[in-house]
Design brief:
- Keywords: Cell outer membrane, Membrane, Signal.
- InterPro entries: SusD-like_N, SusD_RagB_dom, TPR-like_helical_dom_sf.
- The protein is built from 20 helices and eleven strands.
- The chain has 533 residues and is mainly alpha-helical.
- The chain has a domain of 371 residues: Serine Threonine Protein Phosphatase 5, Tetratricopeptide repeat.
- Helix 10 runs antiparallel to helix 15.
- The chain starts with a helix and ends in a 10-residue tail after the last helix.
């Protein structure tokens, strides 16, 4: 597929530097936008390649979406590690003590607006083409992708500027739009361009087709009660039902296939951000998580950095027969690719590398404490980053959105049927009977034992029995951990700012949204800081 190859080989300037949303006249590093170049209808695919390539930085740029959505949650943490480090910013993310200059908050804003800037530039270029009936389709695709970028910003910051043009006057400072205005713009934009978007599923792999737009719209509706105080469960279910009824997508037979090194063109992927091992690598997650000695297990060309790990309270929620535990987490005694024990001290045969389901605290963790995240397949010979495509929206998500809407609409048994379908591949090789869920079970509270966790013990037990539909929240965690879900899910289920976990205690309801980044407040007098900051 030539277009996907073009995305992968396009120079990802935005992975190297962050661009402020007010820098609307910055040079775009692409041969097709050089001064003096005359563009024609033959350049349409080339024009939209840079916007697609820029999405890689949003997702796997340092301090990207994984950190923002997962490490501020109850699933994953990067503690300060004895002898390794990692620093206060990850502690602040975990404990919800961030300020407006936190690099995660700065980075997500700047990278996403950089993508919007790229999209706006491409729109301007296409609008300048004459007598080409295909331009409306390409413009619709770009507008839908821009709406997704605004959805990411809106989900995290709410009151954001809506910049819809590239050709703006010198010194332009965008004005902030209020919460409802941004919500209405995203929804209206997606609905307006929907009829023009491709309905070819795998045939438009890596392109923002109608199904990707419907997933974005479904996410807006699913979280509408949080966003604007109005529940829209029927509307969310309608959008994903269209995806289900299309017949374009289905579950893969093996859960691990979704995250395999060669995961392009899978029947489960609705929208992917394409990467490439050589031309467009970007996922550094294995290196961020694994301890250095684990290079011997995976024959890595470089030494990992030993950071992120699963929060023990979450690891304890897994059923031992759930295959997602083993395919997602690396725990226990470790061996090299040849089967030999990996020793921390070559002179001590008892010093075998052992990942324990224990972390002392976020401020003081040993280098091998905590299970390590390995959901994305790790290839031999990798130095630091690798090129597995990101399944940004997948069919399982559409199914679970429908299930949640059914559950909240009082149709728990129908929801349980869908959840059982999703669970079946996780238990098919162990105990298939455990895949079957009932509506009554989904109505129960969470199995997560919330409370402050210190030195392996919960010191102030809070439990999860009081979480409405908490058992369904557990299902979302087991299926989507590490997939830019958890922050949003915890907020929707009322947990993000009300429960304690590991070294985190509730720190104010206003933490459901991030502050406007300090750099933006300092350079744009039109911006007003979000409440609480």
């Amino acid at each position: 597929m030539k277009f996907i190859k073009d995305i992968k080989v396009c120079l990802l300037f935005f992975g190297l530097t962050a661009v402020s949303c007010t820098d609307l006249d910055e040079t775009v590093y692409s041969s097709i936008t050089a001064e003096g170049t005359t563009l024609t209808a033959d350049d349409l695919d080339a024009i939209i390649v840079p916007p697609y390539a820029s999405l890689r930085s949003i997702y796997w740029g340092w301090d990207g979406m994984f950190d923002v959505y997962e490490e501020s949650s109850d699933l994953i943490v990067t503690p300060a590690r004895v002898g390794i480090g990692w620093g206060q910013q990850y502690v602040n993310m975990h404990q919800h003590t961030w300020l407006s200059d936190l690099s995660h908050i700065e980075g997500l804003w700047s990278r996403t607006y950089s993508s919007i800037n790229q999209i706006n530039r491409a729109i301007l270029q296409i609008e300048g083409l004459e007598n080409n009936e295909a331009t409306d389709v390409y413009l619709a695709e770009l507008r839908a992708m821009r709406a997704m970028c605004y959805y990411i910003l809106y989900d995290n910051y709410r009151n954001i500027p809506l910049v819809k043009r590239f050709d703006l006057p010198e010194g332009f400072l965008p004005e902030q739009s209020d919460n409802k205005e941004v919500y209405d713009f995203i929804v209206a934009e997606l609905n307006e361009v929907m009829p023009l978007l491709s309905t070819d599923g795998l045939g438009s792999y890596g392109r923002f087709n109608q199904y990707a737009a419907k997933m974005t719209l479904a996410k807006m509706y699913l979280n509408s009660e949080v966003y604007i105080g109005e529940s829209k469960w029927e509307e969310a279910m309608r959008e994903v039902q269209d995806i289900i009824d299309s017949g374009e997508f289905s579950l893969t037979s093996e859960f691990s296939d979704v995250f395999a090194l060669d995961n392009e063109n899978l029947v489960e992927t609705i929208f992917a951000i394409p990467y490439d091992n050589i031309e467009a690598s970007g996922s550094y997650l294995a290196f961020k998580a694994l301890y250095g000695k684990s290079r011997e297990t995976f024959d890595l060309a470089g030494s990992p950095w030993g950071g992120s790990a699963g929060i023990p309270q979450f690891i304890d929620t897994y059923d031992e027969d759930d295959a997602r535990l083993e395919t997602t987490w690396l725990g226990g005694l470790q061996y090299s690719s040849s089967g030999a024990p990996i020793l921390l001290d070559e002179n001590d045969p008892d010093s075998q590398l052992n990942y324990t389901n224990y972390i002392k605290s976020v401020n003081e963790a040993g280098p091998t404490e905590g299970y390590r995240f390995i959901r994305y397949e790790i290839g031999a010979g990798v130095v630091a980053t690798y090129g597995t495509d990101v399944p940004f929206y997948r069919y399982t998500d559409a199914l679970m959105i429908k299930a949640e809407c059914l559950l909240r609409l009082g149709r728990a048994d129908e929801a349980a049927s869908i959840v059982s379908e999703v669970r079946q591949r996780a238990f098919k090789d162990s105990d298939p009977s455990k895949a079957v869920m009932t509506g009554a079970e989904l109505m129960e509270g969470s199995t997560y034992e919330y409370g402050k966790y210190e030195d392996g013990k919960i010191t102030n037990y809070e439990g999860g029995d009081d979480i409405e539909y908490g058992r369904f929240l557990d299902e979302l965690a087991w299926e989507f951990v590490g997939e830019h879900h958890r922050k949003q899910d915890l907020i929707r289920f009322g947990v993000y700012t009300t429960k304690s976990w590991f070294s985190h205690s509730p720190n104010g309801g206003f933490r459901e949204i991030f502050p406007i980044p300090l750099s933006q407040m300092q350079t744009n007098s039109n911006l007003e800081q979000n409440p609480g900051y």
